[in-house]
Amino acid sequence: MYAMEVCVDSVESAVNAEEGGASRLELCGNLMEGGTTPSLGLLKVVKQNVGIPVYVMIRPRGGDFLYSTTEREVMMADLRLAKEQGADGIVLGALTEDGNIDKDFCSQLIGLARPLPVTFHRAFDMVEDPSQALEDVISLGCERLLTSGCDSTVLEGLPTLKKLTKQARERIIIVPGGGINERNLPRVLEGTGAREFHCSASSFKQSGMVYRNTAVCMGGALRPPEFGFKVASTDRVRTLNQIAKSVTQ
Fold first, then answer.
1. TM spans, by residue (predicted)?
2. What is the C-alpha separation between 34 and 28, in angstroms, rounded?
């Protein structure tokens, strides 16, 4: 068997992912910045509309994974609230300034998360020594590690993913994620032997606005489009599921 985790940042995407056959959701806010902690309102309504497990991202902002004292306080408060609101799992990660796993703070977060399962997220892809970082994540007791193999996409990181999978020796579930699509999924699954994978399976949805003031941008330097947004596509989720089944049979 295999599991397909879809990262989503809206109720529509969550529902579409479940309809397409997703096994689990990673619920985030602000996927344009790689995912941040979702609002409690989003978590509550998603839980009301889907039946598959919802793992909640705990990340106070975009950017790096070196957090200040107040940011750490926010993360701990968000984690407690996510548990109260029905999260089925927690997704977290933090690094030290020299590119190592911040074991002390992560251990504190994981203690707060229990008894829920914990995934260490792609902060891992920014570490200085992936081999040592893997041992650190395992020692923390995380059930899963989400990684692109410390590269921009899983395909580019495939050699490292293979090494990490071999090193892990089934002590932790390695979940490839980062740029997975219909074309590269077979190669990723065959190359790593992974039984789980992570993707967004999104498509662009046009805004329903008729009047459009195109002179104004609400975003930052990236200037995301104001009159459209990405949502998980039921068809793409279903297609990726079918591909995974054909590879793993």
1. none
2. 9
Q: Domain map of the chain by residue range? A: 3-202+237-248
pLDDT digits over 122-142, tens only? 999 999 999 999 999 999 999
State the CB neighbour count (10 A cutoff) for residue 100: 14
C-alpha span between 139 and 100 (Å, rounded): 14
Q: Is-contact 234 20, C-beta < 8 A? A: yes
Burial class of residue 199 (count of CB atoms within 10 Å of its CB; 0-12, 13-18, 19+): buried
Residues in the chain: 249
The domain made up of 3-202+237-248 has a fold known as: TIM Barrel (3.20.20)
pLDDT attached to residue 74: 98
Cβ atoms of 213 and 172 closer than 8 Å:
no
